[in-house]
């Protein structure tokens, strides 16, 4: 299900964007009007971001991205800037709206080979946008190399030329921009690396395409923003009891490796699970007991003990992996949890333990997903980083394609929600829905943050949030907590930031458009 407000977070593939464009034009807005508005948005970004830039070069390609450049050049000239166009093809070779824009510009266009960025205060990149269909070579590649080596700032129209809107991959040479102005909605390539870094900050301009054109498009890819999942999120209610918010369990590793489990447990409790218990081997009980207060502790040495604990139906969401150790014990515990119809977040060693033979657990996850539980549908959520992903899905990891495609293929195969981590974390559901993380800070790349994320996913699952939305919300809360903390973050700081994150979510939940 896609919530009404989630349409604002949709990411459109170039094909879907072309469809939105076609429908808008068919409903009566001429293409040249859209182009003119796109150019106005580019000019406005230049006025606000680069008010001092007197002499501006615009690189214009053979399609409508080039058309936008001609229209923007005219508007900037009218606003008193000095502009020069460098065309990949002569203006007479342009077609349709781009030809109209070039005629309205009226000035000369220099051949792109004569482009020397050294002379300019600012360069606007209108070589290729949504229509990029193959690797950039030849004169365009040469111009991009010169541009990237020069100090002048770069504003990209729609996408930095050379970045695939669908995948964020570089197709041949690619522009490294300081600012990107795109239209109507972002594309996956604005959020997936390396596209995301090549874009710089991205402005999404309204060019008068109505949101209703999205009604005819089966939206599947989203920016991971609260509007996507806030309607599905279970929030603590005034009338509620702690047992209404579920009981999360984190498996501890051996005596010298208990910290990871406690980090996950702390995140699960601050994340909103009603109760949290650490299941610990006897050898680690004292180490855990010395550090736990609100979080409970139970001895769990083997499958028999686990089976005994699972007779208590209130334990409903489990985390297995952080500091747990790799091997048969992890595999058996995971299978036992799923067979008992409980939700499971499998992270770190839990994932590595499945390497080479994950199919039995995937089948168990599918089976468990068919059952019902008092706290929602049980589910398997996998939270690999790239290395763990490759151990579990070696063939998918080696395949050509974007991170988005890899995560979706893995989710489909596993019958599980897959959270493929990184700066551009992708959350994919078996039904094809996917969200790309848009927030966070480089400080999140530090020991233990993955354990915190696993605990946050469990917190949402324990409360009964459906698994895709649970994983998306956890990734967002994790990133937002890091942003709110700022520089110097270590993983222990994240749970302490969650009260602020919850306050933001509560404000959004009561007023989603705020
Ligand atoms: N959608 C909207 O609502 C609106 C869209 N707008 C704007 O339109 C842009 C999309 O325009 P577009 O479709 O004309 O594609 P564009 O990126 O200009 O490139 C296509 C041309 O490049 C060529 N070409 C491709 N790859 C190449 C390569 N590697 N090396 C060399 N050539 C290559 C390709 O040739 P072909 O593949 O056909 O041989 C074709 O000639 C979009 O990004 C936005 O800026 C706005 O005006 C507002 C409304
Ligand atoms: K461009």
Automatic annotation (TrEMBL):
Protein name as annotated: Bifunctional NAD(P)H-hydrate repair enzyme
Source organism phylogeny: Bacteria, Pseudomonadati, Pseudomonadota, Alphaproteobacteria, Hyphomicrobiales
Domain YjeF N-terminal as annotated: residue spans: 17-215
Positions annotated to bind (6S)-NADPHX: 64-68, 129-135, 158, 260, 323, 385, 451
Catalytic activity: (6S)-NADPHX + ADP = AMP + phosphate + NADPH + H(+); (6R)-NADPHX = (6S)-NADPHX; (6S)-NADHX + ADP = AMP + phosphate + NADH + H(+); (6R)-NADHX = (6S)-NADHX
Residues at which AMP binds: 421-425, 450
Family of the protein in this entry: Belongs to the NnrE/AIBP family. In the C-terminal section; belongs to the NnrD/CARKD family.
Listed InterPro entries: Carbohydrate_kinase_pred_CS, CARKD, Nnr, Ribokinase-like, YjeF_N_dom, YjeF_N_dom_sf
PANTHER family (UniProt xref): ATP-DEPENDENT (S)-NAD(P)H-HYDRATE DEHYDRATASE (PTHR12592:SF0), ATP-DEPENDENT (S)-NAD(P)H-HYDRATE DEHYDRATASE FAMILY MEMBER (PTHR12592)
Phosphoprotein keyword on record: no
Residues given in the record as K(+) binding sites: 65, 125, 161
Function noted in UniProt: Catalyzes the epimerization of the S- and R-forms of NAD(P)HX, a damaged form of NAD(P)H that is a result of enzymatic or heat-dependent hydration. This is a prerequisite for the S-specific NAD(P)H-hydrate dehydratase to allow the repair of both epimers of NAD(P)HX. Catalyzes the dehydration of the S-form of NAD(P)HX at the expense of ADP, which is converted to AMP. Together with NAD(P)HX epimerase, which catalyzes the epimerization of the S- and R-forms, the enzyme allows the repair of both epimers of NAD(P)HX, a damaged form of NAD(P)H that is a result of enzymatic or heat-dependent hydration.
Enzyme Commission code: 4.2.1.136, 5.1.99.6
Assembly information from the UniProt record: Homotetramer.
Annotated organism of origin: Aurantimonas marianensis
YjeF C-terminal domain mapped to chain residues: 225-505
């Amino acid at each position: 299900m896609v919530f009404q407000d989630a349409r604002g977070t949709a990411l459109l593939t170039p094909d879907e964007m072309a469809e939105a464009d076609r429908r808008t034009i068919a409903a009566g807005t001429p293409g040249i009007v859209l182009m003119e508005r796109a150019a106005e948005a580019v000019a406005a970004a230049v006025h606000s971001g680069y008010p001092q830039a007197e002499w501006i070069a615009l690189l214009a390609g053979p399609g409508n991205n080039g058309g936008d450049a001609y229209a923007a050049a005219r508007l900037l000239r009218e606003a008193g800037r000095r502009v020069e166009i460098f065309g990949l093809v002569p203006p007479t070779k342009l077609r349709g709206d781009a030809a109209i824009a070039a005629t309205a510009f009226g000035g000369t266009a220099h051949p792109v080979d004569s482009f020397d960025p050294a002379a300019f205060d600012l360069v606007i990149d209108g070589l290729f946008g949504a229509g990029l269909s193959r690797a950039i070579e030849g004169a365009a590649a040469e111009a991009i190399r010169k541009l990237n080596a020069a100090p002048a700032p770069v504003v990209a129209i729609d996408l930095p030329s050379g970045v695939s809107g669908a995948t964020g991959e570089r197709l041949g040479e690619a522009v490294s921009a300081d600012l990107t102005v795109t239209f109507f909605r972002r594309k996956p390539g604005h959020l997936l690396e390396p596209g995301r870094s090549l874009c710089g900050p991205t402005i999404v301009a309204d060019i008068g395409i109505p949101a209703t054109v999205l009604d005819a498009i089966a939206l599947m890819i989203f920016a991971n923003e609260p509007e996507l999942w806030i309607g599905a999120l279970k929030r603590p209610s005034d009338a509620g009891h702690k047992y209404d918010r579920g009981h999360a369990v984190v498996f501890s590793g051996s005596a010298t490796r208990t910290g990871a489990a406690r980090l996950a447990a702390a995140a699960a409790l601050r994340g909103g699970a009603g109760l949290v218990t650490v299941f610990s081997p006897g050898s680690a009980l004292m180490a855990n007991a010395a550090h736990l207060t609100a979080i409970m502790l139970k001895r769990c040495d083997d499958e028999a003990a686990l089976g005994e604990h699972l007779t208590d139906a209130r334990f409903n969401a489990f985390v297995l992996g952080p500091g747990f150790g790799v091997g048969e014990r992890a595999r058996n515990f995971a299978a036992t949890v799923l067979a008992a119809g409980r939700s499971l977040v499998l992270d770190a060693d839990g994932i590595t333990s499945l390497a080479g033979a994950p199919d039995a657990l995937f089948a168990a996850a599918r089976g468990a997903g068919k059952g019902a539980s008092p706290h929602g549908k049980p589910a398997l959520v996998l939270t690999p980083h790239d290395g763990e992903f490759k151990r579990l899905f070696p063939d998918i990891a080696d395949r050509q394609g974007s991170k988005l495609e890899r995560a979706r293929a893995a989710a489909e195969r596993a019958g599980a929600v897959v959270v493929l981590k990184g700066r551009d974390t992708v959350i994919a559901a078996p039904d094809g829905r996917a969200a790309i993380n848009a927030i966070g800070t480089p400080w999140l790349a530090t020991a233990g943050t993955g354990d915190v994320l696993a605990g946050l996913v469990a917190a949402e699952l324990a409360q009964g949030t459906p698994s895709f939305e649970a994983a998306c919300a956890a990734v967002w809360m994790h990133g937002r907590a890091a942003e709110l903390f700022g520089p110097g973050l270590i993983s222990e700081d994240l749970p302490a930031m969650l009260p602020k994150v919850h306050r933001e979510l509560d404000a959004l939940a009561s007023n989603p458009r705020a």
